Amino acid sequence: MANSLWQNCQNVMQQDLPAQEFNTWIRPLQSLEEGGVVTLFAPNKFVRDWVLDKYADTINQHLTQINSGQLPSLRVEVGTKPTDSRVAQQAAPKLEIGNKLNSIPDIKPPAFSPAPAVHVPKANVQPRNEAGLQLKSNIRENYTFDNFVEGKSNQLARAAACQVADNPGVSYNPLFLYGGVGLGKTHLLHAVGNEILNRNPDAKVIYMHSERFVQDMVKALQNNAIESFKKHYRSVNALLIDDIQFFAKKERSQEEFFHTFNALLEGNQQIIMTSDRYPKEIEGVEDRLKSRFGWGLTIAIEPPELETRVAILMKKAQEAKVNLPHEVAFFIAKRLRSHVRELEGALNRVVAHANFTGKPITIEFVKEALRDLLALQEKLVTIDNIQRTVAEYYKIKVADILSKRRSRSVARPRQVAMALAKELTSHSLPEIGDAFGGRDHTTVLHACRKIKELREENLDIKEDYLNLIRTLSS
Ligand SMILES: Nc1ncnc2c1ncn2[C@@H]1O[C@H](COP(=O)(O)OP(=O)(O)OP(=O)(O)O)[C@@H](O)[C@H]1O
């Protein structure tokens, strides 16, 4: 069968958009094409409004082109594609492109049923019942929205988490946050937990690592207490479950989680999950579970950019009541790029050294305190390494990068490599020029400016650059 209009449109958009953007907004849309009308179903209001706001024009353009110049009538609705088209008539609320202000439904107030007061902050050992199940909430009080520093890389995840905390079980259910290690996923889970408990101290909120879920289940099976296990997890108001990729290849746990998941969703109780990768890419997890993960809202957290890394360091220093000069925070953030946990570790070391020696925290002091860490970083990201990685990425030879060739297929990767060398190493412009086949420092400067500009306006370059930074910093 020929591809539908929407499939074709998705294919084009997948080429045009960065993967994260496509996966978050376009991939979850289902379509129904009937009588010259294309109806797109968004999993929730947030996605629908976003799609209307940001992509309506593009979608219209693509559909018109694919449909031989004729613009099909396009609708975007909240819901899932009905199996029977008659049901589609009843699916409310509807919103037509170009009529954005009509019939946006109100978000309902939180749907929590009363549960016993269970919030016990800062408890290290969690009380457990006879089946070994955790009885109390275990939300870490020090992970809040207030001390979560916002930047481009985590803005959307934070906004969605805030909305969920405001309207648990209603706004986006489940909320799925994914991204690399140490980028703040766990922090956001607890921040939601704290906010829900602030608003309703009686709420039964459970944070748990997926491994714990598996362990508890195994124990329950051994102790013949599986019924109590089921009841326990199905009675919570919000289940915050971390690192879901640990369910891979654990079929029985997946089965149990599948039922828990369904029960909570049916009861309008909130589920938030995190994983180190996009749900559909978690291998060894059943498809029915993966597809459910995407029913609500799926959002990526990216590694923080320089400004955010500086802000995080300043915030953490302030929390620790340490005087960290801005230029020192900048010095550390510029060199440690991979994730926030690494930044925190470095700051803790600097503070410990400062306390120990009684010296003020200066750049010189930090160079000494973090000597081995910085040396490792320098060793990891060399110009040579950058040139090899960029050549491999663009499928050209390192010799091409160093050559005088000016064709676009070589010149652009060369400029990208120069910009990366400037950003990721502490070499000067003349040194970088030298390392790129003896070029002048003004050529390097021009390359840096050009790439900065292109990253603003060209999605491919933006994506390439981010991918390369990720590869080089991991
Ligand atoms: N934007 C941020 N603002 C303030 N602190 C942050 C931010 N992002 C991360 N952190 C801090 O970095 C540390 C690591 O974050 P967290 O444990 O939430 O990462 P994670 O994404 O869950 O990683 P993992 O997958 O390894 O569990 C935490 O101490 C957290 O408070």
TrEMBL record:
<keyword id="KW-0963">Cytoplasm</keyword>
<dbReference type="GO" id="GO:0008289">
    <property type="term" value="F:lipid binding"/>
</dbReference>
<dbReference type="InterPro" id="IPR013317">
    <property type="entry name" value="DnaA_dom"/>
</dbReference>
<keyword id="KW-0067">ATP-binding</keyword>
<feature type="region of interest" description="Domain I, interacts with DnaA modulators">
    <location>
        <begin position="1"/>
        <end position="85"/>
    </location>
</feature>
<keyword id="KW-0547">Nucleotide-binding</keyword>
<comment type="subunit">
    <text>Oligomerizes as a right-handed, spiral filament on DNA at oriC.</text>
</comment>
<dbReference type="GO" id="GO:0005524">
    <property type="term" value="F:ATP binding"/>
</dbReference>
<dbReference type="GO" id="GO:0006275">
    <property type="term" value="P:regulation of DNA replication"/>
</dbReference>
<dbReference type="GO" id="GO:0003688">
    <property type="term" value="F:DNA replication origin binding"/>
</dbReference>
<feature type="domain" description="AAA+ ATPase">
    <location>
        <begin position="171"/>
        <end position="384"/>
    </location>
</feature>
<feature type="binding site">
    <location>
        <position position="185"/>
    </location>
    <ligand>
        <name>ATP</name>
    </ligand>
</feature>
<feature type="binding site">
    <location>
        <position position="184"/>
    </location>
    <ligand>
        <name>ATP</name>
    </ligand>
</feature>
<feature type="domain" description="Chromosomal replication initiator DnaA C-terminal">
    <location>
        <begin position="382"/>
        <end position="451"/>
    </location>
</feature>
<dbReference type="InterPro" id="IPR013159">
    <property type="entry name" value="DnaA_C"/>
</dbReference>
<dbReference type="InterPro" id="IPR001957">
    <property type="entry name" value="Chromosome_initiator_DnaA"/>
</dbReference>
<dbReference type="Pfam" id="PF00308">
    <property type="entry name" value="Bac_DnaA"/>
</dbReference>
<dbReference type="InterPro" id="IPR020591">
    <property type="entry name" value="Chromosome_initiator_DnaA-like"/>
</dbReference>
<keyword id="KW-0235">DNA replication</keyword>
<feature type="binding site">
    <location>
        <position position="186"/>
    </location>
    <ligand>
        <name>ATP</name>
    </ligand>
</feature>
<dbReference type="InterPro" id="IPR027417">
    <property type="entry name" value="P-loop_NTPase"/>
</dbReference>
<comment type="similarity">
    <text>Belongs to the DnaA family.</text>
</comment>
<dbReference type="InterPro" id="IPR024633">
    <property type="entry name" value="DnaA_N_dom"/>
</dbReference>
<dbReference type="InterPro" id="IPR003593">
    <property type="entry name" value="AAA+_ATPase"/>
</dbReference>
<protein>
    <recommendedName>
        <fullName>Chromosomal replication initiator protein DnaA</fullName>
    </recommendedName>
</protein>
<keyword id="KW-0238">DNA-binding</keyword>
<dbReference type="InterPro" id="IPR018312">
    <property type="entry name" value="Chromosome_initiator_DnaA_CS"/>
</dbReference>
<feature type="region of interest" description="Domain IV, binds dsDNA">
    <location>
        <begin position="355"/>
        <end position="474"/>
    </location>
</feature>
<comment type="function">
    <text>Plays an essential role in the initiation and regulation of chromosomal replication. ATP-DnaA binds to the origin of replication (oriC) to initiate formation of the DNA replication initiation complex once per cell cycle. Binds the DnaA box (a 9 base pair repeat at the origin) and separates the double-stranded (ds)DNA. Forms a right-handed helical filament on oriC DNA; dsDNA binds to the exterior of the filament while single-stranded (ss)DNA is stabiized in the filament's interior.</text>
</comment>
<feature type="binding site">
    <location>
        <position position="182"/>
    </location>
    <ligand>
        <name>ATP</name>
    </ligand>
</feature>
<dbReference type="InterPro" id="IPR010921">
    <property type="entry name" value="Trp_repressor/repl_initiator"/>
</dbReference>
<dbReference type="GO" id="GO:0006270">
    <property type="term" value="P:DNA replication initiation"/>
</dbReference>
<dbReference type="Pfam" id="PF08299">
    <property type="entry name" value="Bac_DnaA_C"/>
</dbReference>
<dbReference type="InterPro" id="IPR038454">
    <property type="entry name" value="DnaA_N_sf"/>
</dbReference>
<dbReference type="Pfam" id="PF11638">
    <property type="entry name" value="DnaA_N"/>
</dbReference>
<dbReference type="GO" id="GO:0005886">
    <property type="term" value="C:plasma membrane"/>
</dbReference>
<keyword id="KW-0446">Lipid-binding</keyword>
<feature type="region of interest" description="Domain III, AAA+ region">
    <location>
        <begin position="138"/>
        <end position="354"/>
    </location>
</feature>
<dbReference type="GO" id="GO:0005737">
    <property type="term" value="C:cytoplasm"/>
</dbReference>
